Amino acid sequence: MGTSAFLLGHGVGTQGYVCLPNPAGGVSWTVNNARPEATLFTHIFGEAVQIITHFLSPVVNPNDVGPKPPRFGDVTWQSSFDSSRVWAQKKDFITAGTDASCPNGGAIDCLLLQVIGSDEGPAGGKSLTKTTFIQRLSTKGGSAPANPAIGCLASTDVGHQVLVPYSADYFFFRNEQ
Question: Residue 156 in 3-state DSSP?
């Protein structure tokens, strides 16, 4: 049994970075303890319609396939229609600018994310609960600031945050029925 894409959304939002100590003894921007925030849209009859909100939520769905040590939060996608949601973690990536599916060098990486949990909406909605994988492709923007002097230069900058605009296409996959 394979998987097939059942939903495509174009995401527009920000990727969060926080200034943290690095292994070299300095500081650098990292996505660790930061957050993605995006709204995914699809086009229906020529109009953009919001379908999903993408964000970092508190760890509410621990399980055996989650990373160790425990996560600082779960990357979450929540349906705008029935509030069902899924959590996912990175399985693989393509460096932006190295593949036709991820052509924009300097952008955030394209990702393959494996779903690690799901939850029905409060009224029993299940529109996202059968999602098994999510692909983020055709990314634009979203990379950490190239100039560390912009808020992340010294140990006194630890904890500073920056939100960088990005866009990407998100494909949602489920097992073929």
Answer: helix
